[in-house]
Amino acid sequence: MADALAQLDDYLAARRPEFEDRLTRLVGIAGVSADPAHQPDIGRTADLAATLLSDAGLDARIVPTPGNPVVHGEYRAGSDCPTVTIYNHLDVQPADPAQWDTEPFRLTISGDRYAGRGSTDDKGPALTALQAAQYAIVQDLPVNIAFVWELEEEIGSPHFETFVRQELPRLATDSVLVSDTVWIAAGRPAIDYGLRGLVTFEVSIETGTNDTHSGLTGGPARNPLAELAQIVAECLDPATGRVLIPGFADAAAPVTDAEIDSFVASGFDVATFMAMHGLTSMRTTDVRSVLAKIMGEPTFEVHGFTGGYTGPGVKTVIPPRAGVKLSSRIVPHQDPRAVFDLVRDFIQRRHPDARIELEAAMPAYLGSRTGPHADAARAAVEYAFGVTPAFVREGGSIGAVLTMDQYLKAPVVLLGLSLPSHGYHAPNEHYDWIQAAGGTKMFAHYFAHLAAGGREGR
């Protein structure tokens, strides 16, 4: 394997301008999947993505779906060679130029820093993996490499399953790499092996047809906002975050002490975490408790109330209807539909005329911290960054991971490169050459590891 990687440093130095040119071109397209006005930009992103894959030596195609297309590229070294598939997404979050120090959809290069919307989420990591694949192709490594670049991840991947199902024969693979996760701390690489699931729903109550004057009706008139506040209080202890619904967490897989030890080894710091997210206080500041809650425990969250008067001053009316937007992050072994049914039944037994509507349901994902592909990932990170990675779970959800796990029947390894300081979804999002260079080495080592082991790691 050492011979296969011997020229990697020289390759990186020579290819940096090409990497920066590619990232400049991609960031320059505002492929905001949530905004229909940017639909032409989604098409332009797909066209450019296919060109980039083709220029790197892969066979590229744009695969239509009922929604946004998926860009697929593949390099075939041979039918007896192991196959690895790399997943990224190229759609991005919206960006308000007034909140940015630079133009969000024009890459600004300042030394090793690359600022622009999508630079770290997820265009920079995607191009990092492509740069490593290009090296593997130049070195003629006996490994098949495929890319799946999605354009709907930021809106929940509504048509990704359709793509996978219709393309399943061509997507056969021995392992999947997903590079869309964030380290816990700079200089302390982290490999995610789990993701929480998500259930979103809304509860509403209607008690009349129009606003009424509280001086004329206050007292006997029902107040839907107050009743919704009661519902929330019955479901959740706001001081501790403990869910009060009987049986809510019964199916949840407990987090072991060994897992929490690994979480702590990621370099997590409570004060840094609070500063990064603008938190002035938390329910707990015990590092083990914080990490267990984020990475391995279910939640019940309140996101917003609707209804009533919210303008200046106080308008003394009682609204006829109101709603509250809620969600639960769920963990392995919890069934999302069963969780919703439990919450719905709990509320309706106490408030028969409350309406509870399910918005979305996504199960949790739990991979493995051991085995040949986890070992290959660990070795690749150690080679690239000189540090043994911590295996952690991520508190968020990636729908595409669940789809690939279900249909491709191959180990999914989450090898993210973004740092907390890079500003996922935030103003002044950026990526950097240090992560890009290290990431290229990481992916190249993973490819070489698979190539050296042949198909034994299947």
Task: Give the helix/strand layout.
Elements: H1 2-5, H2 8-27, H3 39-55, E1 59-63, E2 70-75, E3 83-89, E4 108-110, E5 113-115, H4 119-138, E6 144-150, H5 160-167, E7 175-178, E8 190-195, E9 197-206, E10 212-213, H6 214-217, H7 224-235, H8 257-264, H9 270-277, H10 287-296, E11 301-306, E12 317-318, E13 321-330, H11 336-350, E14 355-362, E15 365-366, H12 372-385, E16 390-394, H13 399-408, E17 412-414, E18 430-432, H14 433-453
Parallel strand pairs: 3-6, 3-7, 7-17, 8-16
Antiparallel strand pairs: 1-2, 2-6, 4-5, 5-18, 8-15, 9-13, 9-14, 10-12, 11-13
What can you tell me about this protein's structure?
- This protein has 458 residues and is of the alpha+beta class.
- It has two domains: 2-194 and 365-453, Zn peptidases (Aminopeptidase); 197-252 and 298-362, Alpha-Beta Plaits, CATH 3.30.70.
- Helix content is 37%, strand content 20%.
- It contains 14 helices and 18 strands.
- It has helices at 2-5, 8-27, 39-55, 119-138, 160-167, 214-217, 224-235, 257-264, 270-277, 287-296, 336-350, 372-385, 399-408, 433-453, and strands at residues 59-63, 70-75, 83-89, 108-110, 113-115, 144-150, 175-178, 190-195, 197-206, 212-213, 301-306, 317-318, 321-330, 355-362, 365-366, 390-394, 412-414, 430-432.
- The chain has a six-stranded mixed sheet with strand order 1-2-6-3-7-17, with helices on both faces. The protein has a four-stranded antiparallel sheet with strand order 11-13-9-14, with helices on one face. Strands 4-5-18 form a three-stranded antiparallel sheet.
- Helix 4 packs across helix 14, helix 8 packs across helix 10 and helix 12 crosses helix 14.
